[in-house]
Design a protein that fits this description.
The chain is mostly helical and about 350 residues long. The chain has helices at about 10-20, 40-50, 70-75, 100-110, 115-135, 150, 155-165, 175-185, 195-210, 220-225, 240-245, 250-255, 265-270, 275-285, 285-295, 310-320, and strands spanning about 25-30, 55-60, 80-85, 325-330, 335-340. The chain folds into 4 domains: about 10-135, Aldolase class I (TIM Barrel, Alpha-Beta Barrel), CATH 3.20.20; about 150-255, Conserved carboxylase domain (Cyclin A, domain 1); about 265-295, no CATH class; about 305-340, no CATH class. The chain has 16 helices and 5 strands. Helix 1 runs parallel beside helix 2 (about 40-50), helix 2 (about 40-50) runs parallel beside helix 3 (about 70-75) and helix 8 (about 175-185) packs across helix 9. It is globular and about 75 Å long.
């Protein structure tokens, strides 16, 4: 994230403090907005490595504005031992760079890359087939858009905001909302633009623009943020905004709501007879929803893209009225459906 506070020294101090605990096998630099430029990587990666000792460093970025592949090439020789990438089908767009391209470019730099090329090719083929079978679109590296350095909206939140505005036929408001995102983020003390804070900032900005009056209606999550329920902001908030939110009736009501139960209290309520995954779900979700998940059984582990065209064909044919019999024959296969059978 970018702000007057988030310089190399800030991140290096965070890395030093985390490494000093001895509780971490590795640290990774997360860049959800894809904002780390190659020039920034040249200074930030060495600053982190200087305080991390032998703890491995990973680097996670996105191709939202096309920078990640170039920044990875700067980061790897400087000590980022692991770079987060994706196989074909899931790569690029607002995702991670395509693994095949990153591997090829790193080797061209003369670096040794511990990747099984055959396994990667198999993954690429599988997920490319999946994308085609499901009628999805392969991602492409995003075009450079300097405005992202101002609003810093991550790809997922940007997609959500565009969809919300399109649903009410006001996509024309997007530039104003993004300008408002920049201002709201500064007023709230420069929270990092990743879940849940990107939603807190984005929702407040959208409401400010839609209602034509800033902070007329304040979502509860914004109020909870200002009250410190998500920790203290990186920098002081705008005093007028902070006083307006804290002085509201709703803020006084939320101050009295119970904090999240302690781990011991949750274990006493939920019990110890479930997996860690189920325990966490029951801690944050309604019980009936978790009960439904458990009752549904394990998620399906297999997926064969080759079966999708046949399933799509059967779905379309069975949806058509006036057909009493459907018969498909080919060498080695005979499929016949009769109405009601």
């Amino acid at each position: 994230t970018l702000s007057p506070l988030h310089d190399d020294a800030h991140f290096a101090e965070a890395a030093r403090a985390l490494t000093a605990t001895g509780q971490f096998d590795r640290l990774y630099l997360k860049d959800p907005g894809g904002l780390v430029t190659p020039e920034r990587a040249k200074t930030l990666i060495p600053a982190l490595k200087a305080v991390m000792g032998t703890t491995p460093l990973e680097f996670h970025s996105h191709t939202t504005i096309g920078l990640a592949p170039f920044s990875y090439l700067e980061a790897a020789p400087l000590g980022a031992r692991t770079l987060h990438t994706s196989a074909r089908g899931a790569a690029n767009g607002t995702g991670q760079p395509w693994a095949g391209s990153v591997v090829s470019n790193l080797r061209d730099l003369g670096l040794s890359v511990d990747v099984d090329d055959e396994a990667l090719a198999q993954m690429d083929a599988y997920f490319s087939a999946l994308v085609q079978a499901e009628g999805l679109v392969n991602g492409q590296p995003g075009e450079f858009d300097r405005a992202y350095f101002r609003h810093q909206m991550p790809g997922g939140m940007m997609g959500t905001m565009k969809r919300q505005l399109a649903e009410i036929r006001r996509l024309d408001l997007l530039p104003r909302v993004l300008d408002e995102v920049e201002q709201v983020r500064a007023e709230l003390g420069y929270p990092i633009m990743v879940t849940p804070f990107s939603q807190v900032v984005g929702t407040m900005a959208l409401m400010n623009v839609m209602q034509g009056e800033r902070y007329k209606t304040i979502p509860d999550e914004v109020t909870r943020y200002v009250l410190g329920r998500f920790g203290q902001p990186a920098m002081p908030m705008d005093r007028a905004v902070e006083e307006r939110i804290k002085g509201s009736k709703r803020a006084r009501e939320l101050e009295d709501e119970p904090h999240m139960a302690s781990l011991d209290d949750l274990r006493a309520r939920i019990g110890t007879g479930c997996s860690d995954e189920e325990f966490l779900l029951r801690a944050v979700m309604p019980a009936d929803q978790v009960d439904a998940m458990v009752a549904a059984g394990p998620a399906r582990r297999g997926y064969d893209p080759k079966t999708r065209p046949v399933l799509h064909l059967m779905k379309e044919l069975t949806a058509r009225k006036g057909l009493s019999t459907i018969k498909i024959e080919k060498p080695g296969l005979k499929l016949e459906l009769n109405g009601g059978k």
